[in-house]
Amino acid sequence: MRISIDFGITVTDSLKKSSNGSLEHKMVLSNSEPCEDLVRSIFPEINFNEDLEHIAVTGGKHGNIGDHINNTPVFHINEVDAIGEGAMHLSGIEKNKSSIIVSAGSGTACIYAKDGKYLHCSGTGVGGGTVLGLSKLLLNTIDPKEIGELASRGDPRATDLIIEDVVSGPIGELPPDTTAVNFGRISKTNEIISREDLAAGIINLVGQTAARIATSVAMSFNATEIIVVGRTPTFISLRKALEDAASITNFNPHFPVNGEYASALGAMLIAEK
């Protein structure tokens, strides 16, 4: 049996691989810093003296964990490599293709992938953590399900200015309904903005920001594929905002199934090599 853990800022993802090759995914909130007690609490059913071949750890402050837990060796995996390996495995895209992997978690990281090599090349502090922070301020909730449901019923045009609002003609090949200023409409109206529209505006802001950075990086590196992993794309409205923004530059991002645990999977795969 083998386990892997990705210590995130908001959520910690873990995988357990049984002797028959089956995977079990667990997710817990990151309420404490990584330590041996946290690892044991995630897997209370495991005897750390006898059951495990090894443990793979990655993510924030995984260095807090020693090189062994009892008699079980601990492999510390570079987070960029873990994200890259897991994303490429889940996507099924051939490794010889130049790809940009977007790790959309609390923040957003862009990783260039080619021939099994991974390079952190860009990113932004805007991500899922931004959605939660702005939602707490503007919507009085940090419940992802509620935020997603509100956004699905809202319209970002109630909060945002689009190109046709601010210029008299087209800008290059951009469609006239392309966002010109996120949340720019609010300062120009005295109308009360509904919670639904505010949620849609928040999602639009984060999705478009991630997409703009990812597509710019992809063009800079002549990458042909964009792969999006992490928990943030599970917001359906955010995923659509990201897809729509990427389509302006003719990219069609891939969203692999189980992308939320790509980093934990990548750590496990690297440790098995």
Short description:
The chain is an alpha/beta fold. 35% of the residues lie in helices and 23% in strands.
Give the helix/strand layout:
Layout: E1 2-7, E2 11-17, E3 23-29, H1 36-42, E4 54-59, E5 68-69, E6 72-76, H2 79-91, E7 99-104, E8 108-114, E9 117-124, H3 128-139, H4 144-153, E10 161-162, H5 163-166, E11 179-181, H6 195-220, E12 225-229, H7 236-247, H8 262-272
Architecture overview:
The chain is globular and about 70 Å long. The chain folds into 2 domains: 2-81 and 262-272, ATPase, nucleotide binding domain (Nucleotidyltransferase, domain 5), CATH 3.30.420.40; 123-255, ATPase, nucleotide binding domain (Nucleotidyltransferase, domain 5), CATH 3.30.420. The strands form 3 sheets. A 6-stranded mixed sheet has the order 3-2-1-4-6-5, with helices on both faces. The chain has a 4-stranded mixed sheet with strand order 9-8-7-12, with helices on both faces. It is 35% helix and 23% strand. With 273 residues, it is α/β, with parallel strands linked by helices.
Key phrases:
273 residues; alpha/beta; Nucleotidyltransferase, domain 5; 2 domains; 6-stranded mixed β-sheet
Report the β-strand fraction as a percent range: 15-25%
Roughly what is the average pLDDT, rounded to an integer? 93
By CATH, the topology of the largest domain is Nucleotidyltransferase, domain 5
Largest sheet: 6 strands, mixed
Counting copies of identical and different chains, the oligomeric state is single chain
At CATH level 2, the architecture of the largest domain is 2-Layer Sandwich
